[in-house]
């Protein structure tokens, strides 16, 4: 089975708490790892821990950037990012992996990203114009990364 060259990291704020999302995350991470070097990093969330929202965002932002420090391209998941269909995303993913080698997809917490994370990220993509819980968005990103790999390998899953 052909592999995507390079390395993909998904860096997300918070741990999955519900088994439903955790099982889906584990399944798609396992599937994706068959196609590329892949890592999922969960950073500590600060929302609801006694900090004002801006302070929580800054704390999470520092952790996101630190976890993505070895990546050559940081890509935010954001409702106002570029929307693509699955084939466009597969093409985008191949182009980014070939050009930059080490990609980090950043998934923020419920209050979004700090200004520093936004400024230090090169791309911004959207899974949908709709709003989703960040746990579901994370699973959807992993599924779309896996789907992109199957498209690039001309496999049946994506149909």
Tell me what the structure shows.
The protein has about 160 residues and is of the alpha/beta class. The chain has one domain: Alpha/beta knot (3-Layer(aba) Sandwich). It is about 45% helix and about 20% strand. It is built from five helices and five strands. Strands 2-1-4-3-5 form a five-stranded parallel sheet. Helix 1 links the parallel strand 1 (about 5-15) and strand 2. The protein is globular, with a radius of gyration of 15 Å. The model has no long low-confidence stretch (mean pLDDT about 90).
CATH architecture field: 3-Layer(aba) Sandwich
> What is the highest CATH level, the class?
Alpha Beta
By CATH's scheme, which homologous superfamily applies? Answer: SPOUT methyltransferase, trefoil knot domain
Question: Which consecutive residue ranges, at least 5 long each, have pLDDT under 50?
Answer: none
Averaged pLDDT = 92
The strands making up the biggest β-sheet line up spatially as 2-1-4-3-5
- State the end-to-end distance: 19 Å
Q: How many helix segments?
A: 5
Radius of gyration over alpha carbons?
15 Å
Helix content: 40-55%
SSE map:
Blueprint (H helix, E strand, L loop, with lengths): L6 E7 L5 H15 L3 E7 L9 H15 L5 E11 L2 H15 L1 E6 L7 H5 L3 E4 L7 H19 L7
Parallel strand pairs: 1-2, 1-4, 3-4, 3-5
């Amino acid at each position: 089975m052909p592999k995507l060259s390079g390395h993909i990291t998904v860096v997300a704020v918070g741990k999955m708490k519900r088994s439903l999302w955790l099982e889906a995350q584990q399944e798609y991470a396992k599937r994706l790892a068959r196609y590329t070097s892949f890592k999922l990093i969960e950073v500590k969330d600060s929302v609801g821990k006694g900090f004002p929202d801006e302070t929580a965002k800054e704390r999470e932002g520092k952790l996101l950037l630190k976890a993505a420090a070895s990546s050559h391209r940081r890509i935010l998941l954001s409702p106002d990012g570029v929307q693509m269909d699955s084939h466009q995303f597969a093409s985008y993913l191949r182009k980014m992996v070939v050009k930059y080698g080490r990609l980090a997809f950043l998934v923020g917490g419920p209050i979004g990203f700090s200004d520093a994370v936004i400024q230090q990220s090169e791309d911004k993509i959207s899974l949908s114009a709709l709003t989703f819980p960040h746990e579901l968005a994370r699973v959807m990103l992993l599924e779309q990364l896996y789907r992109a790999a199957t498209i690039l390998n001309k496999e049946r899953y994506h149909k």
